[in-house]
Structure formats: C-alpha cells, structure tokens
Amino acid sequence: MAELKHVHVSIENKMAKLVIDHPPANALSDAVLKDIEAAIDSVASDPAVKVIVLTGQGRFFVAGADINQLDTVKDRASGERLAANGQRVLSKIEQLTKPVICAINGIALGGGCEIAMACHMRIAANTAKLGQPEINLGIIPGFGGTQRLARIIGPSKATELILTGDMIAADEALRLGLVSAVVPSEQLEATVRSLAEKIAGKSMPAIRAALRAIGGGLDARLADGLALEAKIFGEVCETADKTEGIRAFLEKRQAQFQDE
C-alpha cells in the first residue's frame, strides 16, 4: 500500500492499527475520508490481519467535518453527493467481515461520531466527548448519524441529541450504550490492544460468520435473522477450526485454530 498522508497504518500480532492524523483536529475532509477508505481496503484484504483498530492522533478522534469544504456545498445535488460518498465509506467499515474496534481517544463529533458508530465495537477514553452537532450549522448528520444513532441508543434520545446538538461525555455514552467501555485515557491503547489480541486468537471463519449473522440480522425480522443464523451456523460446522475447537474442548486443552 502506498503511504497515506492522513492515516498511519501499522500491523502487529494480527492487528492493524489505523491512526487518523490531520492536524489540528482530524477534521473529516474528502482527502481524509479517501485515506481512511484506502487504509480499510488494504487491511481488509491482508491475510495477516484479523482485527482492525481505528483511532485518532492527539486529543481528537475526529472533531467533525471540514467546515471550509462544507462551506463550498451550495446546492442539493452536491450535498447529496457528499453525504452518499461518506455513507458509502462508513457502510464499507460496518460491513467488513473483520472486526473493527474504534478507540475513541478524544473528541468525536459529527462525522467522527458517525465513523465510530460504523465500527463494530467502541471503547472510549474517559476524556472523550461524542455528539452530532450538525443542527448548529443549519444542517443534519449526513454520514449515517440519523440512522445509526437511533438504532444504537433508541429514537427518543437520538432525536434529542440530534435536535439539540448537545455533546455527551464518555460516561453518558456508556450509560446509553453508545460505547461498550470507558477507560482512563492512558489505558485506552492497552485496553483496546488486549481486546484485539483476544479476538485475534479466535477462529477467523467463526469471526466472519458471527459478524455476518449479527449485521445481516439487525434490520431483518426476527424469523429472517434466525434463519440466517442457522444457515451460517451450518457453514461453520464444516470448517477445520470447528473440528479443532470441539476436539480441544473435549481434550481439555487450548484450541490451535488455523483459520480454516
């Protein structure tokens, strides 16, 4: 992969770490979004990577959209194109069959909150703040915020946050279920690394299967989701890792998965 200007990529112990770096606030311009997509595409296809961690450089995760760029959007068609492109990239993250952990190291507003919500898991530093403040600019979230926030925390609270533009602290985000854990900022990297390494030790076919079943069932009727789960369960029953996992359990030893 060619070196990217706004995203640093490192790979170690089956974990890819993607760090958004666009000083001073990691604002989400077209160039930054393009680099995020390129980095995601690269690690998604890399067989050495089983888990992806997405975070920001400095005290910001992503502070929001690039306001100067947003100021150039003057008509309906260009606004719709901007939103559709952002939605496409974030949906790509959400639909990956490699888990993406968002390490929210600081401010995650607007597009930053939307990126975080597209990840499969979210862990926040205790100094983080999240929100969708687009209403203060006379617009609405456009990269999936109106849809994912309501699905994650419920329509009532999501509507309140979107219509007021209020930020919430990490502890409140945890209470609402927007993040799954809050840790001291100095422990965020180690906490996320530990989680990533734990997941990386599991069977890749089972990881992919679980993500497919969860994602495919979220917007389906329960009966359809259950049918999908049964189908995917049947698929993993034919894997070598399933045979190894069962055998290891019966023999009271640690499974040695080969990701097959």
Description:
This protein has about 260 residues and is of the alpha/beta class. The protein is about 50% helix and about 15% strand. The protein is globular and about 60 Å long. About 35% of the residues are buried.
Helix content percent band? 40-55%
CATH third-level topology of the largest domain: 2-enoyl-CoA Hydratase, Chain A, domain 1
Average pLDDT, to the nearest integer? 96
Total discrete domains: 2
Shape: globular
CATH architecture classification name of the largest domain = Alpha-Beta Complex
Strand order of the largest sheet: 1-2-3-5-7-10
CATH superfamily assignment of the largest domain?
A: 2-enoyl-CoA Hydratase, Chain A, domain 1
- Estimated structural class: alpha/beta
Structure summary, number of beta strands: 10
Number of helices: 11
Describe the secondary-structure layout.
Layout: E1 7-12, E2 15-20, H1 30-44, E3 51-56, E4 60-62, H2 67-70, H3 76-94, E5 100-104, E6 107-109, H4 111-118, E7 121-125, E8 129-131, H5 145-153, H6 155-164, E9 167-169, H7 170-176, E10 181-183, H8 188-200, H9 204-218, H10 222-236, H11 240-250
Parallel strand pairs: 2-3, 3-5, 4-6, 5-7, 6-8, 7-10
Antiparallel strand pairs: 1-2, 8-9
Helix pairs in contact: 1-3, 3-4, 4-5, 5-6, 9-10
